[in-house]
């Protein structure tokens, strides 16, 4: 707690994203959280190309009436793999059917890798890193500043899939699959720092894989609760609605989130998963602020780089057959209701306040 008042001390967070519908929800969650100070945003190509990710990040800041938080352009290509994007999942511009406001915000003159290093140097031992896209920028940052693992207070990664199927190949999750070499470099860097006793156990990355994040299934019913918490009238979404039906919410933040989520619901429905959407990245953002939201197990994680069928697969050596030190805390349990309660109690009033400001 801060001295002299009951407000929690805001935790400085640097978020590296490939925005993306659920990345957008994660950023809104951070902006809505009184215990978070979003000190910078890195963009990487992933769900959409990096320039569109930058546009989405800047537009979201405008939508949320945020201060001039630095947004940096990052890698437009993985370290060595060919670039892939996922407009089928997130919409042609990455935010489903949502439209963001016009603005005059600009990108930083330096790139995302440098932004990571600058933020870590400015807040040594305090900064919380969050990655909800491919880890290209972070891998480049560690090449530039090998002490990054010890400079960060905490690192939370949305990526991988542990003892669970993939969502990009049968065994690989999207963020890792786009740039497996980057992910491998990151796990290796933190592992080497742990071997050298340069970091404490709590500085090992907390990894939120699909085995965890697919428990966080947002439904129209939960989205209606969010609108209620924002004090806005809206029309509940239904699987029976015509595709692309636009939100009727009079609150501009809720309207954008509903329009974005509609596309994500439709994608999940087409995948046979029901009229719902998995909030992978918002869970990781919530864990960045409060790791107590999930249960984790320390283990050694590595990334398959060469398998013809398994490239991009994340492997956790639960039984320690590799004889290597732990390099990660893998998320293994979460209470979705606790997450949704927290998400709604933060984002709802935040959206309400913005509409009245
Ligand atoms: C991850 O892939 C992206 O499409 C999402 O934004 C999330 O970060 C889930 O596999
Ligand atoms: Ca993402």
Automatic annotation (TrEMBL):
Residues 13-341 form the Inosine/uridine-preferring nucleoside hydrolase domain. The lineage of its organism: Bacteria, Bacillati, Actinomycetota, Actinomycetes, Mycobacteriales. Keywords: Glycosidase, Hydrolase. GO terms for biological process: purine nucleoside catabolic process. GO terms for molecular function: purine nucleosidase activity. InterPro entries: Inosine/uridine_hydrolase_dom, IUNH, Ribo_hydro-like. This is Nucleoside hydrolase. The keyword Hydrolase applies. It comes from the Bacteria. The keyword Hydrolase applies. It comes from Mycolicibacterium aromaticivorans JS19b1 = JCM 16368. GO terms for cellular component: cytosol.
């Amino acid at each position: 707690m801060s001295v002299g008042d009951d407000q929690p001390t805001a935790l400085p967070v640097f978020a590296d994203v490939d925005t993306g519908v659920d990345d957008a929800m994660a950023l809104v969650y951070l902006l809505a959280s009184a215990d978070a100070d979003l000190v910078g945003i890195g963009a990487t190509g992933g769900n959409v190309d990096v320039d569109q990710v930058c546009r989405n990040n800047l537009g979201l800041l405008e939508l949320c009436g945020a201060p001039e938080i630095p947004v940096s352009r990052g890698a437009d290509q993985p370290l060595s793999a060919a670039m892939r994007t996922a407009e089928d999942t997130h919409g042609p511009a990455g935010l489903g059917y949502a439209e963001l406001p016009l603005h005059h915000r600009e990108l930083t003159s330096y790139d995302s890798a440098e932004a990571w290093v600058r933020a870590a140097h400015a807040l040594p031992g305090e900064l919380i890193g969050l990655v909800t896209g491919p880890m290209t920028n972070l891998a480049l940052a560690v090449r530039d500043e090998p002490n990054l693992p010890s400079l960060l207070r905490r690192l939370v990664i949305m990526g991988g899939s542990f003892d669970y199927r993939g969502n990009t190949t049968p065994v690989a999750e999207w963020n890792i699959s786009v740039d497996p070499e980057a992910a491998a470099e990151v796990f290796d860097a933190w592992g080497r720092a742990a071997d050298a006793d340069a970091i404490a156990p709590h500085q090992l990355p907390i990894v939120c894989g699909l085995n965890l994040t697919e428990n966080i299934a947002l439904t129209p019913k939960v989205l209606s609760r969010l609108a209620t918490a924002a004090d806005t009238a809206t029309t509940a979404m239904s699987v029976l609605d015509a595709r692309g039906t636009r939100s009727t919410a009079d609150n501009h933040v809720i309207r954008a989130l509903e329009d974005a989520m509609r596309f994500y619901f439709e994608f999940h429905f087409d995948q046979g998963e029901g009229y719902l959407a998995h909030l992978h990245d918002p869970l990781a953002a919530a864990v960045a602020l409060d790791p107590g939201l999930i249960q984790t197990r320390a283990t050694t994680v590595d990334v398959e780089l060469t398998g013809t069928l398994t490239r991009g697969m994340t492997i956790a050596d639960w039984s320690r057959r590799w004889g290597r030190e732990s390099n990660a805390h893998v998320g293994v349990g979460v209470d979705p209701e606790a997450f949704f309660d927290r998400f709604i109690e933060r984002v709802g009033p935040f959206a309400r306040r913005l509409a009245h400001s």
